[in-house]
Amino acid sequence: MNSEKPKNILFIMFDQLRFDYLSCAGHPFLETPNIDKIAEKGVRFSRCYVQSPICGASRMSFYTGRYVDSHGAAWNNFPLKVGELTLGDHLRKIGVQSWLVGKTHMQADVEGMERLGLDPDSIIGARVSDCGFDVFERDDGLWAQGPDGYYDEKRSPYNEFLKQKGYKGENPWHAHANSGVDEQGNIKSGWWLNNAGLPANINEEDSETPYLTNRAIEFLNKMQDEKSGSWMCHLSYIKPHWPYIVPAPYHNMYGQNQVLAAVRSDYELENTHPVYKQFIDNKVGKAFQREEVRRSVIPAYMGLVKQCDDQLGRLFSHMEKTGQMENTMIIITSDHGDYLGDHHLGEKGMLHEPSVKIPLIIYDPSPDADASRGSQCDELVESIDLAPTFLDFFGANIPDHILEGRSLNQLIHNQKPEIWRDFAVSEYNYSTTPMAAKLELAPRDARLFMICDKNWKLIHAEGGFRPMLFDLKNDPDELKDLGDDSSYSSVIDSMYNHLAQWSRRQSQRTTISDEKILQARSKRKRTGVLLGVYDENEVPLDQRQVYQGKADIRLEQDED
Amino acid sequence: MNSEKPKNILFIMFDQLRFDYLSCAGHPFLETPNIDKIAEKGVRFSRCYVQSPICGASRMSFYTGRYVDSHGAAWNNFPLKVGELTLGDHLRKIGVQSWLVGKTHMQADVEGMERLGLDPDSIIGARVSDCGFDVFERDDGLWAQGPDGYYDEKRSPYNEFLKQKGYKGENPWHAHANSGVDEQGNIKSGWWLNNAGLPANINEEDSETPYLTNRAIEFLNKMQDEKSGSWMCHLSYIKPHWPYIVPAPYHNMYGQNQVLAAVRSDYELENTHPVYKQFIDNKVGKAFQREEVRRSVIPAYMGLVKQCDDQLGRLFSHMEKTGQMENTMIIITSDHGDYLGDHHLGEKGMLHEPSVKIPLIIYDPSPDADASRGSQCDELVESIDLAPTFLDFFGANIPDHILEGRSLNQLIHNQKPEIWRDFAVSEYNYSTTPMAAKLELAPRDARLFMICDKNWKLIHAEGGFRPMLFDLKNDPDELKDLGDDSSYSSVIDSMYNHLAQWSRRQSQRTTISDEKILQARSKRKRTGVLLGVYDENEVPLDQRQVYQGKADIRLEQDED
Question: How many CB atoms within 10 Å of residue A210?
Fold first, then answer.
């Protein structure tokens, strides 16, 4: 590794990319050679879990390095509280810049900022508003529009780009990038899943993934021109997230004969857990139970993934040309998965593997990582592990009284850590959904917790329900819920004990480090507080130094 | 109640005042007629628990209305993180001033304030630094001094007062207010417990409790002169907290024959829980196991309490003269108790009743409270209940997504609430102490949790220890630890289940109220996100309104 060059991190995230829709992860039809190439140069993690299978909450965990229950931004557009520290805060502290190119789904805590008098237009205020990043480009890619206005009121750089390019309409993001065009030239909305197979109404090079790739290349050139110091760049794509539609030639690159069968069984529809039942019966679940929906959507989804891979190919060859591969750590991951009809469900939210497990590939240019190149790691890994991994990459101390994840560096360097986590945890808050209303649950009871090890996955639902339990060893497809089977009560008890231990973790003592606490133990400041001394003669004279009259005390503090 | 006058709250806290050292609570020798008078006009709670039996952590729970594990300021001088909302924030929001006269033990999150660019000298910065209060007087009353300087580096208004009065020495707080004088006129430090019986080296009217009472009267007069609107004033005394020494005539008002026998048994020294054993063996524990220590300290402690009661008498008669009794809610409580030798322990920290249970008396001037005057309430109450009670008193909504306590108003108004808490929880973090070092515990494992109902108290210790269990019905003195008795395993399991439920509580989703979540359920904004629709014909035409060409969407959002 060239020591003259500063080390950088390119933290690439896709949105709603399933862990198994990559050729390096074993997909039989989908070819992703550019992502595979990074896997060959790095480590691919086969069991990485997000902290919540929903954009906003999951991302806040990536960006804070903390569990959802610790940072509190439990669903889309729940503001991240003003006091929470982010990756950007930790990196700036060690002199590393933290840049955003793309999506965060961050909702600023406007009320909290007002309370503390933080101006959103100040540098600090802008960083707090953007989850600790300095913004090269922020585009959350959700420019949907209805009678009550836009889903996202922010300015859309991408829509402005399309208008400059001459695309017509008030919202070309929808009418062009996310609508199809049929053979008669009629524009068909990408919201209708039966249009998924049409080519998007846009030139491929103007669609969202190439657009953001261009912006990323502009960023890389800018940083190289400026000879800036070390940076971490979060390159965050909206795709293959819905609307499921992709421009030619990707729209018909994959055929219905390449649509994998849905992983589901009728058994799942018997004695179904009441919360799971709500997901099965919701609009998206019902839609993806229809084979015509899967056959329409999945080829488009595969095309979107293929386009993502091609664009990473462009990006990586630019980095190779400009000599940035040898000093840049590259992460490829996603904020959650997509059921695509598995388990009778669509989208995400429930806690089966297709929803909660994500791809994670890490390429570390350091020689230390040579031993592990091209390998697969099957340890239990969580999305919150990236923040400490980044600090470790830059040789910084990891504030583990704030960051709840663990550095992956040893795993990346093929050194088996002495102790690794035995359990992964994910959470889902469905309190705002009609499902919670149908179950008549109070907001705080509309919460799911997943805890799994390599053999078992338990899903706990607040609100007085039985748990769900899956035998991951013998039923890796999670088709048989054992949560109602009394013969597994000891397994359930032990999983609940681990969940209880996790729930008691100390997550809020963020203003005092373990290091400071250990220092306080070993060397207590002598500031005159003396407890439990009956007679001054119990204290050595040389320490006592009681001045006559003033009676000032000069002794070891003892605050036991 | 005079409707012309604004409603106010006088929130009086003593430091280290045991729940049972009041005549209204049944102490056989100690007379506290002025406190008793408030009990006769209000409600006395017989089972109020602090969230942690240590000044700093307990107070942060009083002032935030949140459990220690939720606000994170788990021990003395652990800074309260900058984002935490305080009683002052909630009250100011409804136009009620929040004033401090006395002690808070608040440690500002200086690093967090710097990170957010908060100037401690700005109004907002000063409030954040002082736990949300506007400061009439801040005096934490801990002006101990040693080779490494003062325990508390802040300016001491009380020491300045003493110097103005002509008291000599660099630190008259110690040499006069907290030292004794023997018959030969020698000054004897109050740190030595064998000096506890001497009269303090100061005129009674210049000692700490009268001094702060004077400041409180000045505050009341100021607010009356200014005809200010509603306010909450936290009048926070340092006494009867150590050093255990009191001026004449209180120093010999109580005799050794009035020292109650220590509540302890040799049984407690057999098969002792390893963590409890550390408390028994620490310096303070060993001291208070000596009868001479108890006989020296307890009469002084009783004298300090008596002085506190006399000073409240002065304060209340001033309030009666100035007509402030009829519009002021009065709270009398403490931040934790004092073992005074019970259970072979001194001070506080462990989780037996003398440490974790506090006096709580609430006088509500409203006619609604007439039905309950002079009554005793035996419900399980926690210190975090005061914050919501105050908001309720002012008729404000209670943000129960932030405040974890429950309003006591129904109990104060003698209306039995339909649902009340079944369990009280307290925590103790001893990670900085030599006890944790002796047990070789990591900081996060040096934590205790108490959960109790009216029949049982379980104490869980992190770090792989067995629990402690007490049968409060049959062993109210907590002399027999049943935590190692397998015949109680079902009780232990059920208490652990309740602790697990408490640990999973949602404590950090503070930026979105339950109300907003329920609104989102019932009326979702129509912003054009449409999931799970295969064919536009599945949507009523009148809703569809797909404009030809532009394909703009005008439909119900459905984000299930």
Answer: 17
